[in-house]
Amino acid sequence: RKEVEQDPGPFNVPEGATVAFNCTYSNSASQSFFWYRQDCRKEPKLLMSVYSSGNEDGRFTAQLNRASQYISLLIRDSKLSDSATYLCVVKGNDYKLSFGAGTTVTVRA
Amino acid sequence: DGGITQSPKYLFRKEGQNVTLSCEQNLNHDAMYWYRQDPGQGLRLIYYSQIVNDFQKGDIAEGYSVSREKKESFPLTVTSAQKNPTAFYLCASSFRDRTPNTEAFFGQGTRLTVV
Description:
Chain A is built from no helices and eleven strands. Chain A is mainly beta. Helix content of chain B is 0%, strand content 45%.
Protein backbone atom coordinates (compact mmCIF):
# COMPACT_ATOMS: atom_id res chain seq x y z
CA ARG A 1 0.00 0.00 0.00
CA LYS A 2 1.34 3.45 -0.86
CA GLU A 3 2.10 5.73 2.07
CA VAL A 4 0.00 8.54 0.65
CA GLU A 5 -2.82 8.08 -1.85
CA GLN A 6 -4.82 10.74 -3.64
CA ASP A 7 -7.73 10.84 -6.00
CA PRO A 8 -5.89 11.71 -9.24
CA GLY A 9 -8.83 13.45 -10.85
CA PRO A 10 -8.82 15.23 -13.12
CA PHE A 11 -11.43 17.59 -11.75
CA ASN A 12 -12.71 19.87 -14.49
CA VAL A 13 -14.89 22.59 -12.99
CA PRO A 14 -16.35 25.94 -14.13
CA GLU A 15 -15.25 29.20 -12.59
CA GLY A 16 -17.03 29.86 -9.33
CA ALA A 17 -17.59 26.20 -8.53
CA THR A 18 -16.55 24.39 -5.38
CA VAL A 19 -14.23 21.42 -5.70
CA ALA A 20 -13.07 19.07 -2.98
CA PHE A 21 -10.80 16.06 -2.86
CA ASN A 22 -9.17 13.77 -0.34
CA CYS A 23 -5.93 12.12 0.49
CA THR A 24 -5.36 9.07 2.69
CA TYR A 25 -2.18 8.12 4.52
CA SER A 26 -1.07 4.78 5.91
CA ASN A 27 1.24 5.69 8.80
CA SER A 28 -0.79 6.44 11.90
CA ALA A 29 2.29 7.99 13.53
CA SER A 30 2.47 10.76 10.93
CA GLN A 31 3.10 14.13 12.50
CA SER A 32 2.50 16.89 10.02
CA PHE A 33 0.33 17.36 6.96
CA PHE A 34 0.42 19.81 4.10
CA TRP A 35 -1.12 20.66 0.77
CA TYR A 36 1.25 21.81 -1.94
CA ARG A 37 0.44 23.20 -5.34
CA GLN A 38 2.48 22.37 -8.42
CA ASP A 39 2.16 24.14 -11.74
CA CYS A 40 3.29 22.46 -14.94
CA ARG A 41 7.06 21.94 -15.03
CA LYS A 42 7.59 23.93 -11.85
CA GLU A 43 8.60 23.07 -8.32
CA PRO A 44 5.89 22.43 -5.70
CA LYS A 45 4.98 25.33 -3.44
CA LEU A 46 3.24 25.23 -0.10
CA LEU A 47 -0.46 25.99 -0.30
CA MET A 48 -1.25 25.41 3.35
CA SER A 49 -0.42 23.35 6.38
CA VAL A 50 -3.20 21.19 7.77
CA TYR A 51 -3.95 21.50 11.46
CA SER A 52 -5.85 19.06 13.63
CA SER A 53 -8.75 21.45 14.08
CA GLY A 54 -9.00 22.21 10.39
CA ASN A 55 -8.03 25.54 8.90
CA GLU A 56 -8.97 28.03 6.24
CA ASP A 57 -6.90 30.30 4.08
CA GLY A 58 -9.17 32.48 2.00
CA ARG A 59 -11.05 30.23 -0.42
CA PHE A 60 -9.17 27.13 0.68
CA THR A 61 -10.19 24.87 3.55
CA ALA A 62 -8.19 21.90 4.81
CA GLN A 63 -9.40 19.23 7.18
CA LEU A 64 -7.59 16.43 8.99
CA ASN A 65 -9.25 13.27 10.25
CA ARG A 66 -6.70 11.31 12.26
CA ALA A 67 -9.08 8.51 13.14
CA SER A 68 -9.73 7.70 9.49
CA GLN A 69 -6.27 8.85 8.38
CA TYR A 70 -7.28 11.25 5.68
CA ILE A 71 -6.97 14.91 4.87
CA SER A 72 -9.08 16.95 2.53
CA LEU A 73 -8.88 20.17 0.56
CA LEU A 74 -11.83 22.25 -0.51
CA ILE A 75 -11.61 25.14 -2.93
CA ARG A 76 -14.52 27.58 -3.01
CA ASP A 77 -15.34 30.05 -5.77
CA SER A 78 -12.76 28.51 -8.12
CA LYS A 79 -10.64 30.82 -10.23
CA LEU A 80 -8.89 30.09 -13.50
CA SER A 81 -5.62 30.55 -11.62
CA ASP A 82 -6.48 27.61 -9.34
CA SER A 83 -5.77 25.23 -12.23
CA ALA A 84 -2.84 23.13 -11.03
CA THR A 85 -1.89 19.82 -9.49
CA TYR A 86 -2.45 19.64 -5.74
CA LEU A 87 -0.09 17.43 -3.79
CA CYS A 88 -0.85 15.91 -0.42
CA VAL A 89 2.23 15.69 1.80
CA VAL A 90 2.71 13.78 5.03
CA LYS A 91 5.68 14.04 7.36
CA GLY A 92 6.38 11.03 9.53
CA ASN A 93 7.98 10.96 12.96
CA ASP A 94 11.24 10.07 11.18
CA TYR A 95 11.06 13.40 9.25
CA LYS A 96 10.46 11.51 6.03
CA LEU A 97 8.29 13.58 3.69
CA SER A 98 5.96 11.49 1.57
CA PHE A 99 3.98 12.85 -1.35
CA GLY A 100 0.81 11.70 -2.97
CA ALA A 101 0.74 11.45 -6.75
CA GLY A 102 -1.31 14.63 -7.01
CA THR A 103 -4.85 15.69 -7.90
CA THR A 104 -5.24 17.65 -11.12
CA VAL A 105 -7.73 20.50 -11.10
CA THR A 106 -8.70 22.43 -14.22
CA VAL A 107 -10.95 25.46 -13.89
CA ARG A 108 -12.65 26.51 -17.12
CA ALA A 109 -14.10 29.87 -18.04
CA ASP B 1 17.69 36.37 0.19
CA GLY B 2 17.28 32.98 1.82
CA GLY B 3 16.43 30.05 -0.35
CA ILE B 4 17.32 26.73 -1.84
CA THR B 5 19.26 26.57 -5.07
CA GLN B 6 19.63 23.69 -7.47
CA SER B 7 22.07 23.61 -10.33
CA PRO B 8 22.20 23.15 -13.18
CA LYS B 9 18.65 23.71 -14.38
CA TYR B 10 19.15 21.42 -17.39
CA LEU B 11 21.67 18.62 -17.63
CA PHE B 12 22.47 16.19 -20.40
CA ARG B 13 24.34 13.01 -19.74
CA LYS B 14 25.65 10.25 -21.92
CA GLU B 15 24.71 6.72 -21.00
CA GLY B 16 27.23 5.15 -18.65
CA GLN B 17 28.32 8.42 -17.07
CA ASN B 18 27.89 9.47 -13.48
CA VAL B 19 26.57 12.99 -12.89
CA THR B 20 26.19 15.08 -9.74
CA LEU B 21 23.31 17.46 -9.09
CA SER B 22 23.90 20.32 -6.71
CA CYS B 23 21.55 21.47 -3.94
CA GLU B 24 22.45 24.33 -1.59
CA GLN B 25 20.30 26.06 1.02
CA ASN B 26 20.92 29.06 3.25
CA LEU B 27 17.76 28.67 5.32
CA ASN B 28 19.59 26.95 8.19
CA HIS B 29 17.37 23.92 7.63
CA ASP B 30 18.36 20.64 9.24
CA ALA B 31 16.63 18.22 6.90
CA MET B 32 17.18 17.93 3.17
CA TYR B 33 15.51 15.73 0.59
CA TRP B 34 15.89 14.54 -2.97
CA TYR B 35 12.91 13.58 -5.11
CA ARG B 36 12.45 12.36 -8.62
CA GLN B 37 9.41 13.24 -10.73
CA ASP B 38 8.56 11.57 -14.01
CA PRO B 39 6.09 13.12 -16.49
CA GLY B 40 2.55 12.99 -15.16
CA GLN B 41 3.71 11.33 -11.94
CA GLY B 42 4.08 12.33 -8.33
CA LEU B 43 7.28 12.89 -6.37
CA ARG B 44 9.20 9.83 -5.29
CA LEU B 45 11.73 10.07 -2.48
CA ILE B 46 15.30 9.10 -3.34
CA TYR B 47 17.26 10.03 -0.20
CA TYR B 48 16.81 12.28 2.78
CA SER B 49 19.05 13.61 5.51
CA GLN B 50 18.02 14.81 8.93
CA ILE B 51 21.41 16.07 10.08
CA VAL B 52 24.95 16.48 8.83
CA ASN B 53 26.83 13.25 8.13
CA ASP B 54 23.66 11.18 8.22
CA PHE B 55 21.19 10.20 5.50
CA GLN B 56 18.57 7.55 4.83
CA LYS B 57 17.39 5.79 1.71
CA GLY B 58 14.02 6.72 0.38
CA ASP B 59 11.75 4.62 -1.78
CA ILE B 60 13.89 4.57 -4.94
CA ALA B 61 17.53 4.89 -3.79
CA GLU B 62 19.02 2.29 -6.13
CA GLY B 63 21.43 3.85 -8.62
CA TYR B 64 21.81 7.06 -6.60
CA SER B 65 24.21 8.26 -3.93
CA VAL B 66 24.34 11.31 -1.67
CA SER B 67 26.54 12.99 0.90
CA ARG B 68 25.84 15.47 3.66
CA GLU B 69 29.19 16.88 4.73
CA LYS B 70 27.81 20.37 5.33
CA LYS B 71 24.46 21.51 6.64
CA GLU B 72 23.93 23.73 3.59
CA SER B 73 24.68 21.17 0.92
CA PHE B 74 23.17 17.84 -0.16
CA PRO B 75 24.51 16.79 -3.58
CA LEU B 76 22.97 13.87 -5.45
CA THR B 77 24.99 11.63 -7.75
CA VAL B 78 23.14 9.74 -10.43
CA THR B 79 25.30 6.74 -11.20
CA SER B 80 25.48 4.59 -14.30
CA ALA B 81 23.62 1.92 -12.33
CA GLN B 82 20.43 3.99 -12.55
CA LYS B 83 18.65 2.45 -15.52
CA ASN B 84 16.19 5.24 -16.31
CA PRO B 85 17.75 8.48 -15.07
CA THR B 86 15.89 10.88 -17.35
CA ALA B 87 13.58 12.80 -15.00
CA PHE B 88 12.94 16.04 -13.13
CA TYR B 89 14.93 16.08 -9.87
CA LEU B 90 13.76 18.21 -6.98
CA CYS B 91 15.64 19.06 -3.81
CA ALA B 92 13.85 20.26 -0.68
CA SER B 93 14.76 21.33 2.83
CA SER B 94 12.96 21.93 6.11
CA PHE B 95 13.47 22.33 9.82
CA ARG B 96 13.28 19.13 11.85
CA ASP B 97 10.79 20.47 14.35
CA ARG B 98 7.52 18.56 14.34
CA THR B 99 5.15 21.50 14.62
CA PRO B 100 2.79 22.03 11.70
CA ASN B 101 4.73 25.05 10.50
CA THR B 102 7.75 23.08 9.42
CA GLU B 103 6.95 22.90 5.74
CA ALA B 104 9.53 22.04 3.12
CA PHE B 105 10.83 24.48 0.56
CA PHE B 106 11.87 23.35 -2.89
CA GLY B 107 14.55 24.32 -5.31
CA GLN B 108 13.58 24.98 -8.92
CA GLY B 109 14.64 21.52 -9.99
CA THR B 110 17.10 19.98 -12.43
CA ARG B 111 15.91 18.34 -15.63
CA LEU B 112 18.26 15.49 -16.43
CA THR B 113 18.22 13.94 -19.87
CA VAL B 114 20.26 10.93 -20.91
CA VAL B 115 21.36 11.13 -24.53
